[in-house]
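pasting for ref
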Amino acid sequence: MEELPLGALRVRGWSAGCDLCWKGAKSVLFITGECPLYASCFYCTIAEWRRGKDLVIVNERIASSPSDVLDEVRLSSSLGVGITGGEPLSVPERISSYVRLLKDSLGKRFHVHVYTNSLGADEKSLSVLYDAGVDEIRFHTWDERYWERIRLAVSMGFSVGAEMPSIPMGPWIVKLKRLSSFLDRIGAEFLNLNELEFVPSNRERLLSMGMRPRADDEVGVEGSSEAAREVLEYLERETGIMGYFCPALQKEYQVRMRWVRRAMNVAREYETPTDEGTLIYGEVMGPEDLLISLMRKYGGSLKDGALLMRAESFERALRELRRLNLTGRLIEVMPTEDRRVLQIYPLDFVLRSRKSKVK
């Protein structure tokens, strides 16, 4: 069993979709918030504000039109997209329209995988997806009555596997082993296991079931990674399919890598991309004549009565800003459309930090 960074585990290999996810080269297309299983999937991580809402969201951006989706995928330099929900197969024609747009615009090699709880997976809906060019289907279902729908997807020519949470309780571990064997018998390719996570929408329920956060992490559930290792060892020993475990920390890494790609594409002339995938810039407020003088010397843009400048230029101008008694700060934002603010560093803080570095 191959050990990967960030606590991930892999058996034999992984799907093309997993490879792109690992590199942060895949966008996430939330196709709808409608799903009939919210009440039964106690571990669901979908935010309450998305549940039951017929929304389309690509990465962190609410899409008001198909062009928004294509624009966001391009800005993120994505090589593929994972379509999720809700239950995506409740709107197969919508999936088809977006997949056709992406494949026509970005090429047939642009990789698309779709998640489904299997309820909407039948020959008609899967045919719609196949004709549109969907490459991979990831099934998420505990109910063995619906496992035959996985076989149907295999017979239609998709790359097929299952993606499940690693629940650290005996009956769930047994079911995952049975699912592994079933996937192997029908010619499916992989089983992906995700670390069970605490999020606001499921925290109370998980705690009531006796689950606790890991000692070293408030997100991951204690015992989930150990349960995944047990299942993957069974999969490696008893089957020929691929297996992969994705820890909670890995999802943060994937988002950061996607941000890194996006930040390089969307940085304005006064914004500096960081190694964390964020954008940072300096903001100076004061009399217009002084701001214009500073802009000529250090560069930047005047916007809404403030001078916005690159972080390195702001740091070069620190002493002058203090001498002129101007108000300034460094602002760190997400590389998203709304530029959500993450951190603000006041001028005095930046000055103190610089002095401590010099010492």
